[in-house]
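User: I've been trying to design a sequence by hand for this structure and keep getting stuck. Would you show me what you'd pick, starting by listing the structure so we're on the same page?

Assistant: Good idea, let's start from the same input. This is the structure you sent:
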C-alpha cells in the first residue's frame, strides 16, 4: 500500500471516531422533527463532512436533495471532494458541488455542496426550493452576506411571515450550523428553534504575545517577515507537531513560503523523501484560488520526522480543519471587503482580526493535544486595535447585488426585511441609489426589465450594465471576455525575485503597448484573445508572465456568461441599439454605462478627483499602463481602488467627458428617500403599472440620447 493511500484509509476510520458520530441517530431525528434546527459544535467535530452523510444514509434524499452551503468556494469544493471520497462515490455523481462559474453536479447529484451565493441564485429561479428536502446553512457564525440573506429569506418563507411551504409536496427542513458562537441568537431569530450541541473535546492552548507588531502597525506592515521568523523559531525550538501560520492573502503567503524555503533546511517537498531522518520542514501554502489538487496535499500527514507548516488565509480558521496542528503563528490580520466611506466604494483591505477571531485561530492548535499559539502582535495591539467580535459582512459591504436579488424575489420592503443584524439604513439607501443609477429599479423602487436581466449575471451590477449595453449594440464579444477577465484573480504574475520581476514588468508593458496602450481594460481583452488564439496557450502565458490557470478560468467564465446572455436573448425581448463609431470608442462607451459611478477627472499634476460626490483625491496605480501618462489625461474610468496612505486607481481607461455628461447628473439627482419610502409602502399595482410605462418611456428616451 502506498503511503498516501494508507493515510486515506486511516482517515476514513477516523471519521467514525469524530465527536459527532455518537450523536448520529439523535441528529437525524432532530432534523426530521423540526423545520429549523441549529447545530453547533467545535470546529473539526464533523458537522460539515458527516451530517450530510448521515442524512443521506437515513434515506432522506429520497424526498429531495440535500443542499449544504458554504461561505467560501474552496470549502465547498474541498469538502465535496472529501465527502464523495469517504462515501466512495465519484465526485459530481451522488455528491457534487457548485460554486460560481464551476458546476460539478449531474442528474444523479443528491448531496450538493455549494456556496451560499449559488443557493441564493437557485432561490431566484425556484423560490420554494422544490428540489430540496433539506437545506443546511453551514458556517453561519462567519456571518457572510449571502448566508445572512438566506437566513432572512428562509425565515420569511418558513416561519409564517409568508405562506409557509404551501406549494411544496414535502416540507423543507433547514439546518443552521455554527461554531459555538451566537447559537442563542440564531435560535431566537428562527422562532426559538432547538439547538443541538455536539460536545467537543478540546485541549488547552497557551497563547503568548509578541512585541514586533504594535498599535502603530495597525495598517499592516512587515508582519510577513516576523511571521516567518517566529515559525522558524517554533521549528527549531519546539517538540514535534505541525505549524499553522495565518496570513491574509495569496501574494504574501507565497512570499512567506519563499522566505521559509530559503531559510529552512532544504528537503524534498513531495512525499518521496529519501532521507527521512532529516528534521525538515514541509512548507505548504493554502489560499482560495489555489488549484484543488494542491489543496488536497494539506490534509495528508507529513512523512515521519518531517514537520508540516501550512501557511494559510483565514480559510483554515473554521472552514477547513487540518489534523495534527499543534502550533499556531497568528499574524493578527485578515483581508476583508469593507465599504470605505472615504471613497464610497467596497475595498479589499488588510485589517486587524477581532479578539474572537484570534481565539478561534488559537483553538486550532488544541484539537488533538495541548497546543501553543504565538501571536506576533503585542498585548497593547490586542487591547487597542482589535474589536471584540468581527462585524458581520452585511454591516460593512455594498448591498447593491443583494438588494436587487431581494427585489427580484418580490421582497419589496428591503428595509423591513428580517435581518439577523440590521445593516445601517445608509447602506441600503446606497444600494437603492446604485440600482436606480444603473436603471435596474425605477423611481418607485421597482425592478425594471433591465434589472430582471441584470440579476441573471453573477457579476458586479456595473459590469453587468456595461455588458448589457454592449449586447444591445451587438458587440458583446468585447465585453464578455473583459467581464471574464475581471472575474478572475491575478492575471499577471508578479515574481518575488527582483530580477525576474523586472523581466515580468517588461513583458507586461509590452503587452499593454501592443494592445494599443493607455487602456487597461483593452489590455485585458487583448490578453484574452491572444492567449486564446495562440497555438499553445499555456506556453504563451509562460512566455508573457501570465497566469495560465487564471486564463483558463477566464475562458470557461466567458463561455458561461455567453450562455446566460444567449438564454436571455432567446427568452426576453432584448433592447437593440445602433452605433456608428469606431470599435475603441464603442468599447469605452459601453464601459461608461456601467462605470460612470467610477469616474475621475484630473485636478492638478498627477492627481485626479472622483466625481461621485466624495471628490476623493486619487492617483493612477503604478501597475496601470496610464501611469506616468497622467498629464496627457483629463477624464477616466476605473475598475477598482486600492487604499494605502494614498488612494490608487487600478484598471483604468481614458474617456471623453461627452460620454458621461448625461450620466453624471444621475450620481447626484437621486432622491434616495423617495426610493426607500416607496420600498416600505404596500404596492399599489395600478399605480405601478402606470409609472412603469412612464419609466419605460423615460428609459428609451435616455438610451436614444446615449446613442447620439
Ligand atoms: P466541522 O464542520 O465540525 O468543523 P469537519 O466535518 O469539517 O468538521 O471536519 C471533520 C474532520 O474531517 C476533521 O478531522 C478534518 O480534518 C477532516 N477533514 C475534513 N475535510 C477533509 C479533507 N478534505 N481531507 C481530509 N480530511 C478532512
Ligand atoms: Mg464545518
Amino acid at each position: 500500500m502506498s503511503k498516501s493511500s494508507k493515510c486515506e484509509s486511516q482517515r476514513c476510520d477516523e471519521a467514525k471516531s469524530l465527536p459527532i458520530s455518537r450523536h448520529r441517530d439523535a441528529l437525524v431525528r432532530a432534523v426530521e422533527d423540526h423545520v429549523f434546527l441549529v447545530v453547533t459544535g467545535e470546529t473539526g467535530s464533523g458537522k460539515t463532512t458527516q451530517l450530510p452523510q448521515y442524512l443521506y444514509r437515513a434515506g432522506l434524499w429520497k424526498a429531495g436533495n440535500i443542499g449544504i452551503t458554504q461561505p467560501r468556494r474552496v470549502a465547498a469544493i474541498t469538502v465535496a471532494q472529501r465527502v464523495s471520497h469517504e462515501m466512495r462515490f465519484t465526485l459530481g455523481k451522488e455528491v457534487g458541488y457548485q460554486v460560481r462559474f464551476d458546476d460539478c453536479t449531474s442528474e444523479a447529484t443528491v448531496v450538493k455542496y455549494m456556496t451560499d451565493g449559488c443557493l441564493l441564485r437557485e432561490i431566484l429561479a425556484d423560490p420554494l426550493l422544490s428540489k430540496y428536502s433539506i437545506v443546511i446553512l453551514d458556517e453561519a457564525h462567519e456571518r457572510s452576506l449571502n448566508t445572512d440573506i438566506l437566513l432572512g429569506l428562509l425565515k420569511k418563507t418558513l416561519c409564517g411571515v409568508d405562506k409557509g411551504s404551501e406549494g411544496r409536496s414535502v416540507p423543507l427542513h433547514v439546518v443552521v450550523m455554527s461554531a459555538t458562537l451566537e447559537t442563542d441568537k440564531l435560535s431566537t431569530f428562527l422562532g426559538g428553534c432547538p439547538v443541538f450541541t455536539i460536545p467537543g473535546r478540546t485541549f488547552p492552548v497557551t497563547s503568548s504575545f509578541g512585541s514586533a507588531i504594535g498599535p502603530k502597525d495597525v495598517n499592516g506592515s512587515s508582519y510577513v517577515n516576523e511571521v516567518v521568523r517566529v515559525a522558524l523559531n517554533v521549528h527549531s525550538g519546539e517538540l514535534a507537531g505541525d505549524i499553522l501560520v495565518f496570513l491574509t492573502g495569496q501574494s504574501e503567503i507565497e512570499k512567506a513560503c519563499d522566505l521559509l524555503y530559503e531559510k529552512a533546511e532544504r528537503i524534498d517537498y513531495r512525499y518521496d523523501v529519501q532521507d527521512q531522518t532529516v528534521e525538515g520542514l514541509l512548507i505548504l501554502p493554502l489560499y482560495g484560488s489555489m488549484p484543488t489538487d494542491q489543496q488536497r496535499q494539506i490534509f495528508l500527514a507529513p512523512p515521519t520526522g518531517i514537520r508540516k507548516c501550512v501557511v494559510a488565509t483565514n480559510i483554515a480558521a473554521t472552514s477547513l480543519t487540518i489534523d495534527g496542528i499543534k502550533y499556531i503563528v497568528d499574524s493578527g490580520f485578515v483581508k476583508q471587503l469593507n465599504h470605505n466611506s472615504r471613497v464610497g466604494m467596497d475595498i479589499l483591505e488588510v485589517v486587524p482580526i477581532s479578539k474572537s477571531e484570534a481565539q478561534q485561530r488559537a483553538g486550532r492548535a488544541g484539537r488533538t493535544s495541548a497546543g501553543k499559539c504565538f501571536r506576533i502582535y503585542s498585548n497593547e495591539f490586542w487591547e487597542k486595535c482589535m474589536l471584540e467580535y468581527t462585524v458581520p459582512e452585511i454591516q460593512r459591504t455594498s448591498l447593491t447585488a443583494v438588494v436587487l436579488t431581494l427585489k427580484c424575489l418580490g421582497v419589496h420592503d428591503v428595509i423591513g426585511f428580517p435581518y439577523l443584524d440590521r445593516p445601517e439604513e445608509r447602506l441600503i439607501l446606497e444600494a437603492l441609489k446604485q440600482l436606480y443609477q444603473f436603471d435596474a429599479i425605477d423611481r418607485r423602487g421597482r425592478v425594471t426589465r433591465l434589472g430582471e436581466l441584470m440579476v441573471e449575471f453573477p457579476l458586479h451590477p456595473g459590469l453587468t450594465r456595461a455588458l448589457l449595453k454592449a449586447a444591445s449594440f451587438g458587440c458583446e464579444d468585447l465585453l464578455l471576455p473583459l467581464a471574464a477577465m475581471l472575474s478572475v484573480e491575478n492575471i499577471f504574475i508578479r515574481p518575488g525575485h527582483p530580477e525576474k520581476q523586472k523581466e515580468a514588468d517588461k513583458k507586461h508593458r509590452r503587452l499593454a503597448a501592443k494592445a494599443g496602450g493607455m487602456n487597461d481594460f483593452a489590455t485585458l481583452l487583448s490578453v484574452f484573445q491572444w492567449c486564446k488564439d495562440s497555438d499553445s496557450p499555456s506556453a504563451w502565458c509562460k512566455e508573457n508572465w501570465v497566469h495560465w490557470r487564471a486564463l483558463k478560468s477566464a475562458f470557461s467564465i466567458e463561455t458561461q456568461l455567453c450562455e446566460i446572455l444567449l438564454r436571455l436573448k432567446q427568452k426576453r425581448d432584448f433592447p437593440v441599439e445602433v452605433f456608428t463609431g469606431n470599435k475603441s470608442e464603442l468599447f469605452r462607451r459601453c464601459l461608461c454605462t456601467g462605470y460612470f459611478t467610477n469616474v475621475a477627472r484630473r485636478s492638478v499634476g498627477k492627481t485626479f478627483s472622483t466625481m461621485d460626490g466624495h471628490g476623493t483625491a486619487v492617483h493612477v496605480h503604478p501597475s496601470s499602463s496610464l501611469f506616468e501618462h497622467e498629464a496627457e489625461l483629463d477624464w477616466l474610468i476605473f475598475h477598482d481602488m486600492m487604499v494605502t496612505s494614498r488612494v490608487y486607481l487600478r484598471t483604468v481607461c481614458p474617456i471623453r467627458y461627452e460620454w458621461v455628461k448625461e450620466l453624471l447628473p444621475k450620481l447626484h439627482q437621486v432622491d434616495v428617500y423617495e426610493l426607500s419610502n416607496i420600498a416600505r409602502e404596500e404596492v399599489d399595482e395600478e399605480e405601478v403599472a402606470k409609472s412603469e410605462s412612464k419609466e419605460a418611456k423615460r428609459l428609451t428616451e435616455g438610451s436614444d440620447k446615449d446613442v447620439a
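That's my pick for every position. To get oriented when you compare it with your attempt: Residues 11, 18, 41, 43-50, 78-79, 82, 299, 321, 323 surround adenosine-5'-diphosphate (ligand 1) (CB under 6 Å). The radius of gyration is 26 Å.
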